[in-house]
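User: Hey, my collaborator sent me this sequence without any context and asked if I could get a structure. I don't really work with proteins. Can you help?
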Amino acid sequence: MMRYTGPTTRINRRFKTVIFPVTKAYERKPYLPGMHGAHLKRRISDYTLGLNEKQKARFMFGVSERQFRLMFEAAKGMSGLAGENLLRLLELRLDNIVYRLGFAKTRAAARQMVMHGHVKVNDRKVNIPSYICKAGEVVSIGEKAVSRQLATHGLEATQGRECPSWLSVVQDQLKGTVDRIPVREEMVQDIDEQLIVGYYSR
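Assistant: No problem. I've predicted the 3D structure and written it out in structure-token form, which is a compact way to encode the shape of the chain:
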């Protein structure tokens, strides 16, 4: 489990993508952090490219270094491409599913909802954010008023966010279903998984 408490705008600027909610500081300076960030040009090694891509994925999904490495090892042991398998495992995490269904504005908020017992899988409470959901499983919000209020606020905050095609959501019932396992085109697009594979294969 990883809870990043550092400067979020700096992370967005470092990886040149929106990992954490955009702030006015990022809108003013959407370039590399540091005094010379706006004009910094340097050759980046393959190692650094792979490291940066790994870190970007870790921050995006809120996964610790140890968890990420274990997920990569699991992905290598699965049939198919290791990089795609890794992204698939990340997408199928319960906290990410809660986020993708729109019940939370951010993955961090979704992780908190899961940890605090507000989420069920097939009508059974699951408080493990790293739980890997399977095709056919139903993810729902608990019956407690506070649980349903959190999810309702999440839906209000994420109006306009499109639910992925491999998931379906019934908003008025505060539940969704993993209809199928996602293919590469349906997963996060701004991560180059081959750079991560290259980093771990060095």
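In plain terms: The radius of gyration is 18 Å. You can pass these tokens on to your collaborator as they are.
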